[in-house]
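Practice record 12: protein with copper (II) ion.
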Amino acid sequence: MVCAQDRVARWRGLLGGFVPLSILGVCLVGYNAPSLFLSFAAAPPADGALRGVLTPIVFTNEYGSRTAGDSWYPSFADSALVEPHRLTTLSTAAADDGASADLSRATWSVSTERGAPGPAVELVDGAWTVLFDAVGRYVVDVALPYGDCDANLAEAAASVAVACVYVRRSLRKLNPADRERYFDAFKTLMAVPTARGRRLYGGGYASLDDFVAVHLELAGDRVNDALHDGMGFVASHNALTLAFEAALQVVAPATSVPYWDYTEDHHLANEAEDRLATLWSLDVWGDDFFGTASGKYRTVETGRFAYAPIAKAAAGARVKSPYGYLRSPWNVNKDPFLLRAHSFCGASYGWLEGSLTTEASPIDTAWPSCKVHHELTFAVDSLYEWVWAAAYAPHGPVHFMIGGYTHCGDMAMAALHGNSSSDDLKASNVAKILGSVKQRTVAFPKTMWRYGLVEYPQACSDDTPQALCHMICDDPVSLGSFRKFALTGDMGENMFGDWVARLPVDLWGQFLELICTTPFTPGEQMGANSPVDPSFWPIHPTLDRLLQYKRIVEPFSSPGWESPDGPTKYCITDYDGIGASDCKGHHPWDVAPWAVAVDGDPAFVTNGELHAMGDPRAYALPYVYDDFTWPHCDAEGHVFPPPSGAPRPGADAAAHKHAAPEERDPDDRGPPGHDDDHGEKPQEMGSSRPGEAG
Ligand SMILES: [Cu+2]
């Protein structure tokens, strides 16, 4: 303790010593230089009254401490970030470490941006704590008696702007309590229907099935997918995630939807010997996370999501599965449980490090890597190009590799084995053809229906055996229908592989029989009901985070919704930019299908408005991301630099180098003569591109 007289003497001493100390700068060695200069800042003014100076106000919760201006968001350059419904500890201290500043005697006040009283700050076990209960801007003031030996010589005061926002964290960085809270709330939304939930939790509640139903209705439309394969993809999924997050928060107020940086999964699996086995055995598939799908039925059998049920669609639902579930019309699955096949009819994958131009094909599965996310960030400079690219290689394979296909029977084509005289159809080629058919389930069961080549049953009654509920082809399957299915332009080749064109005429019927009578069944993440799978939700925040980083670090030179060069194509069915389909859901002026919080209240906004709300320079969303670093990518040489452009210590930002694309094993190529379909951009009808499941 330094008493008043001593302190005044000390000021004098410091002031008196100033010149020589400055001249003999070297003499500072051994002193605590920073606090010395802070002491000068607190030097008594001419009137002789002491006024203390406080160190910055620090806001601490279980994830760490924040001070004003330490976030990467330009909108929060002057603010400290705090989180709603999470106990926050406030601290500050006298900058002059010689002064006595008894923090227990501080007076704190919190007010809203408009000056209304905010939440109370309370002294609990010697620490000042506050619980913000609503997203918004606040001001925190503190006054601290500043003096010594029981004499208040002055009062130090400080004021800081605070932004209270939810923080979306990496799924892998949630502390165990928060991870439990998130997945428990998820389970509640899964189990409690909307009407009952509203009685229990209030009007903001909505069940998971509510979100599944709307996503299914919009994505399961036969002609226009209003959520995918177009410019509305990112904004509509941001609206979906925001609305879902708000429903979760009704149950668990401190929760936010985590992001799953699945490039880390690529990084981890890529270093392993058996990459796919490693991919599916990572932590996120454990009982504490999404749960492991296993067994004959490929459903989760342990953990909180064990036997997660799939609901029946409401009476009169426009889009439902043949068995009446909240599933896609092309999903003939009879089983009532959440399905993740993780493979296509058991066919093994190749493993490729994809790039932005990769058309992710089941032949070479390209789980999104650091490389592709880096390219999306630094090799694209228009929003238009970014949104079109983001949906595919950087995102789509996560959905369809999780979902996969099953119920493929034994895929026998007896005649192919025994009766063929064709050189093309030696046994090894037959195996490859069947392997190709398996792998291409990623596209054809849906694509053939979308193009009107096949139908699915309006209804399969509950007692219809699975084997009898499948797509409906022309009856009898004719040579004409083979031409229609398999030889129409590029379509058949894209759907099945270029071997179809060489299939002998006498085998066409048998091939069609196989295709048309097998109850190929997609996992949920392959279909329009993908939000029913807990592993769906943390996927899109990952893209959103990448987009926010891009907008902070290297903003688009063409930030508009429209193509900077050439006609704008709003969705894949917008032929030649002339709007042949209405592309509903994909224009900036289309209203996003889920309400989002605007100034605290749910409101429907357009895709364009929602995108503007995410502008880091005029940020109006109720959440931020915890950080924008990708250490595992930096380690691979795909460096994500901080906003200044200055390299982080230890990171070679100048390099931006890419690892050479992995050499592909020619034996992984699948079907005979498979034509490399990598490198294609989004296409019109006629493509069998897997598209964006989810
Ligand atoms: Cu989706």
